[in-house]
Specification:
4-stranded antiparallel β-sheet; 46% helix; 24 helices; CBS-domain; alpha+beta; 14% strand; Jelly Rolls; 613 residues
Length: 613
């Protein structure tokens, strides 16, 4: 048969084929016509063809459990039926919503191409993972790509030079010059370092200079008292970006590099990281470090959106991007806390970040979600006024007030540990929608300033809820509150509104992971970390453990892209994405991600026996 013109082979997955393979495919293509209302492919049936739509819309139905649910709409350029050819059975039923004209790729030729092209086969077998890489490669290559791939062990490490705690300052300075390093590791001395943490400390060239010039210490004074403990370290197999996050979070410019088999490999400084990548984040970090007023903190914070825009455009992995932004946000919250709380009271108060900030997943500045744990019996008449100033300062920096008033300026969210335990017990008893929402917010609480030890009794009370099966069941039911928005081809009541990715996709994954983590005693906060722990514990199948974090990253990336575009156009960032604006591969990615959401919901239904709910 003559080849049919018009089949576009320039997009995934067909661009993964070489020229000869593309020619073989093009020569075998036929055309099909399916009138509106007809079933093109039945669920569970094998298929003689893979279909690529030229005109019209095809609706896929998920018939599992005898309850047909819309899976997705497919439009021009979209492919379906590949699984029916590969596995011999279709996952879904495919109906023509209107007259459909499509390209028919013969099953034998398709199977031959799968066998001949590993990359082409991987597109269908690896699913989200490969498609995410293809989508990332479709963006412009950047220096950041190298930062994401380069391991710490491959960076230019400085040797780890160790000296005894009794080494005189002038001898230590000479040792630095001789070794061409700007820091030394100081061995712990049981006599002179009594009361310090065990293990080595670190002393920098600046520490020695300050000791001589500012503290007037003699040249032969020992370096032991100058050393800082503990030494912050990273692992040799961490990526450079993670080292950058660690330095930013701990307000330092050098970390110790450790290896499981070889021990200490050396030290890594900000200069070495910046030799691979000139990070705007470091400039923000420096401005925050030097900020002497809330106005200067606000000026540094205003650069955060530009940083996020830069890293997103350069293809930063979502988990790394969130970690870096969380580290910088933590610095900002700490500065504001110190500005409104007198030094003598900071050890009697713990500031908590809640919600997405507590999970280290907030990227753009959204609502203020925070709380306080107060020391028992704390009496401070200025507390309410200070927390008003705290909220006002965050609003000036760009964090709008929380519509639900989940903020430290609300007395309900600043309690002693005993009062928090009472409130948690009340949430557990009442189980009404408001209590469930407040509890879910509190489950992500993370100390960011003040005295973190005050939070421990509260954290223990929250962890204890994991033994209440009835409560967990009610919390899990919230994941089913919103339908999955799988009709992606503009067939909505108001297409201009787009689809709400938070309600339809992100929330069910984040909240479901949160409830499972609570049930199994997993104390981690970040959704990706929780998911990894659930997989390791055998709570999630290997397939869900692989696909859930991939799906979450896909939806977060797409939401962030839409938010940044809205801000650039002078609009407001929200959770909606317009499917019609997505590239073909991104639509395919989003469909796959939302399919994972449905599979995860099914897992929750089975785990918490929600089928009848």
């Amino acid at each position: 048969m003559d080849s049919v013109p018009g089949l576009d082979l320039s997009h995934p997955p067909f661009d993964l084929l070489d020229a000869a393979q593309q020619s073989r495919l093009q020569a075998s293509v036929d055309m099909g016509f399916h009138p509106a209302g007809s079933t093109i492919l039945a669920a569970g049936a094998a298929s003689d063809h893979v279909h690529v739509i030229l005109k019209g819309v095809v609706r896929a139905w998920d018939d599992r459990g005898g309850d047909a649910r819309v899976f997705a709409d497919y439009g021009p350029g979209d492919l379906f039926g590949a699984w029916a050819v590969i596995a011999g059975r279709a996952r879904h039923r495919y109906d023509a919503r209107e007259d459909v004209l499509d390209f028919l790729l013969p099953a034998p030729v398709f199977r031959e191409l799968l066998a001949d092209s590993p990359a082409f086969a991987a597109f269908f077998h690896e699913g989200l993972s490969l498609k995410r890489r293809l989508a990332a490669n479709d963006q412009q290559p950047s220096e950041l790509s190298r930062l994401m791939l380069t391991r710490v062990r491959d960076a230019q490490l400085a040797p780890a030079i160790r000296v005894a705690a009794g080494t005189p300052i002038h001898v230590a300075a000479a040792r630095m010059r001789e070794a061409r390093v700007d820091c030394l590791l100081v061995e712990a001395d049981a006599d002179s370092d009594a009361g310090r943490s065990p293990g080595v400390g670190i002393v920098t060239r600046t520490d020695l200079l300050d000791a001589l010039a500012l503290d007037a210490r003699p040249r032969d004074a020992p370096v032991g008292p100058l050393a800082r403990h503990p030494v912050v370290g990273v692992r040799a197999n961490d990526v450079l970006f993670q080292a950058l996050v660690t330095m930013t979070e701990h307000h330092i410019e050098r970390v110790l590099v450790d290896d499981d088999t070889q021990g200490m490999l050396g030290t890594l400084g900000m200069a070495e990281v910046l030799a691979h990548y000139a990070s705007h984040s470091h400039l923000i970090s420096l401005r925050l470090e030097r900020a002497g007023s809330l106005q200067e903190v606000a000026a540094a914070a205003r650069e955060m959106t530009a940083l996020v825009r830069q890293l997103h455009a350069q293809g930063a992995r979502m988990s790394y991007l969130m970690e870096l932004v969380a580290a910088l946000n933590g610095r900002i919250l700490g500065h504001v806390f110190d500005a409104v709380v007198p030094p003598g009271l900071r050890d009697r108060i713990c500031l908590l970040a809640l919600g997405s900030e507590g999970r280290r997943e907030q990227i753009l500045k959204t609502d203020q979600d925070n709380a306080l744990v107060l020391a028992e019996g704390l009496e401070w008449d200025g507390l309410a006024a200070a927390m008003e100033r705290f909220g006002d300062a965050l609003a000036d920096i760009g964090y709008p007030p929380c519509p639900g008033s989940v903020m430290v300026r609300n007395p309900k969210w600043r309690l002693s540990a005993s009062a928090w335990r009472e409130r948690i017990a009340r949430w557990q008893r009442e189980r009404d929608p408001e209590s469930a929402m407040d509890l879910s917010i509190a489950m992500d609480a993370r100390p960011v300033a003040g005295n973190p030890a005050l939070f421990e009794p509260v954290a223990g009370a929250l962890r204890a809820l994991g033994r209440d099966d009835l409560l967990l069941r009610e919390l899990a039911r919230a994941t089913l509150a919103f339908s999955t928005p799988l009709t992606l081809f503009g067939r909505m009541r108001d297409p201009a509104e787009g689809i709400d990715l938070k309600k339809g996709g992100i929330f069910p994954l984040v909240h479901g992971i949160r409830v499972l983590a609570l049930r199994h005693g997993i104390a981690r906060h970040n959704s990706f970390d929780r998911c990894a722990a659930l997989l390791q514990a055998g709570v999630l199948s290997p397939e869900l453990g692989r696909d859930v974090p991939q799906a979450l990253a896909v939806m977060m990336r797409m939401r962030l892209g839409a938010q940044l575009q809205a801000l650039a156009e002078g609009g407001r960032a929200d959770n909606r994405v317009d499917p019609a604006s997505l590239r073909r591969l991104d639509r395919e990615l989003l469909r796959d991600a939302l399919r994972v959401v449905n599979a995860f919901k099914d897992h929750l239904r089975d785990t918490f026996q929600l089928r009848a709910g």
